[in-house]
Amino acid sequence: MVVKSISTSTESAKKSAKKAKTVAVFGGGIAGLTVAHEFVKLGYKVKVFEANSDAGGFFRSARRKEDQDMPSEYSWHGMGPWYNNFFELIKEIPFDEHSSLYENILTRPVVFGLAPNSGTAHFGDSNSKNVDLENLFSMTTKEKWLWSWLMVKVWCSNTRSSEKYSNINAKEAWRPYLDASTLNTWSATFGSWVGSDWWHVSFHHVAHFFRKQLVTKYSYHHTGDSDGGPWDHTARTGWLLLNGPSSEVWFDKWVDDLKQKQVEFYWQTSLHRLSFEENSITAAELDNGETVQADIYVMALNPFCAADILARTPVLEDKPQLNLFKPLVKQGPHTQVSFRIGFKEKMSWPRKRCALVISDSAFNLTLFSQEQAWGKPSSLGENIQSLWTVTACVSKVPGPVHGLCLEQCTEEQFLDEVLFQLKQCHALDELVKKANDGKSWQDFSMVKIKVWHEWAFSPEGITSAQPKWVNSTNTQQYIPQQKTTISNLVLAGAHTKTTADVWSIEAAVESGKLAVKVFEPQLKVIPQSNFLVFKLLGKIDDVLYYFKLPNVLDVGLIFMAMLLVSAIALGIAG
Is 0.85 surpassed by the pTM of this model? Predict the structure, then answer.
């Protein structure tokens, strides 16, 4: 039995001591479920209140009869080698009586490719230990050195990075050093890789995203499967996917496990406001008028909802940590729209598990064909043999068909735009032709094309019932910690302070664990790794930054230049 019983004699004693403790968790996304998972292990009585009719938040999936029973998600998503808390978490969730989710729901690494409108697609190697900059981004030797120099400058700074580099747009940071075409190709990856887009994401977040990918010290072993023998997921290797729709292979099983452990779920039940007295929350008022009382309250809601709830209790809105929500959401929601295209015939690909960034597309499209990762038990929908999930990552650039940016399009105009942008991509068409005896993807019968059902298009712009927050150049200084000054209130969510430091599945899981750790200090939370040399240089750079001096690498370069000039001068004098 791989999933072992959590109870030991020591833990049983803890459970007995804490059996009167109750926890109310508001939000049934990844962070909220992680909180419930950790608290119930320790003997707390947990209730979860979720506004939707099911769990998973932004990462849940759905099937609807009006969409040919086609599985749909907010966006396709992957798990990097630095997703330590996530991997450890799913090792504890049973898949069946004999094994865990970790052993059953993860694919082998995906390989990313960049597909331009003209020319051919270029792929990275999912098993390579290095990023092939020349192949992927067509960088010259000079550009590779300058690109790397900027990356390492961020990696060697702590306070400077979080306070200064986090306010600099990533694309603009690299603009002086890269050719325009190279820059556009490089920044096209920010949506699919970093989870934001080149319009919003900061220099700090892009650079540290790649640092985590390169330096994580943990290794996760996987047994052999139909694709080969045992393998290890380590630093500088590819990203994994779920082998089925997220709700079906992950969230439904997680909720079932939590229910068996006596966690109570209340669906379509939203938090309206919190009642506050002296230094603690005394009750939570729900939208249906009912009142909830608990020993501990956890706000694991997206920050836009949290800001609205706090505004209904002004005395709370001004408290430390809680007063950060208003500026945290000032930038507004991030618009990243996914849609699915279902094809009647099976479509082959020249590589296994290949994901594409349509690098010249105005809406910064990314594409993955789900049957490459999903197993046979996961139906693609009625009469559907191939299913593409495509995500439009940039919402503020006008499209070539209607001249409107994504945020201004009607649904019909949006679909016109994205289909045209896909058809413009010669490299995509050549890939499909290569694997299908010269047959273009446009020659495959399209059964259905559908936008994720929560997006609402209107003359006033596109909106979602569940607004998405992402890190940007205006957010780093406002990110709250899990612990508040209210004795029985904690926060959780990928928008709170974590070592993952970017909106992601890993940040959501880490935040949930950190929220529980406020009350249970012994709880193990795995921080992100870093090389010792970067830690030491970061400490030196903190001192330099305090005295308003240049980055430690720049100072080192200046120092070496001075030594070289001095040596030359001494040589001449001698």
Answer: yes
